[in-house]
Amino acid sequence: MSTLESQREASAEAFAGLSRRQEITPSRLLSGATVAFVAVAAGAVFQTVAAYSGVFDACVAAFIVVIGLGSMALSGERRRPVAFEIGQDGLTTWDRKGHAQYRQISGCAHWSDRLLALVLVSADGRSEPLLVPADSLAGASAFRELAVRARRCAQEHL
Questions:
Q1: What distance, in Å, lies between the first and last C-alpha atoms of the chain?
Q2: Predicted pLDDT of residue 157
Q3: What are phi and psi of 93, to 5 degrees?
Q4: For the chain, which residues make up each domain, given as ranges?
Q5: Which residue of 7, 16, 27, 30 lies most exposed, with the fewest beta carbons within 10 A?
Q6: What pLDDT does 91 receive?
Q7: 16-31, pLDDT tens digit by residue?
Q8: Are 108 and 116 in contact (CB under 8 A)?
Q9: 22 phi and psi, to 5 degrees?
Q10: Who has greater pLDDT, 6 or 66?
Q11: At CA 144, angle to CA 18 and CA 158, rounded to 5?
Q12: Residues facing 90 on adjacent strands
């Protein structure tokens, strides 16, 4: 048996052993970007308000911005799916309560091997974006499989 055949068999065995349902963990990349965004927004509000009303008012305004944006980021994180399974032309996603929903992939943007932005359309026609950072999945093979399937589905939708 040649080395090429043995490599093919090994990759086929690894692919067969890959669980179809993939867990999505919180991403350090998105968390860091969110914290940086909140810090920049709070700093901008502080500088603007301090120029007109003083330091105390600027601190209060910046604190309100941090609380508001932080709570919105946390609620958005809670709404994100915690798992997905790749289907023929879409994804089945599970929320924190365990409810599953099948959605078709209608759009896809892939940035290097770091981030995948999907547009998912539910059965009632509503579209929802889903950001999938590579560091939120268990392995690079799951991210590559999702990226390839998403590109194919998005091309079929055009």
A1: 43
A2: 66
A3: -115, 150
A4: 28-78, 81-157
A5: 16
A6: 86
A7: 444 578 888 988 989 9
A8: yes
A9: -110, 135
A10: 66
A11: 120
A12: 104
Residues 61 and 58: their CA atoms lie apart, in Å, by 5
Give 56-111 pLDDT, tens digit per residue. 999 999 999 999 999 999 998 898 899 988 887 788 889 888 888 888 888 888 88
DSSP of 84-150? EEE-SSEEEEE-TT--EEEEEEEEEEEETTTEEEEEEE-TTS-EEEEEEEGGGSS-HHHHHHHHHHH
Cα 21 to chain centroid distance, Å, stands at 16
At 74 the three-state DSSP class reads helix
Spatial separation of the C-alpha atoms in residues 4 and 140, rounded to whole Å? 22
Residue 150, pLDDT above cutoff 90: no
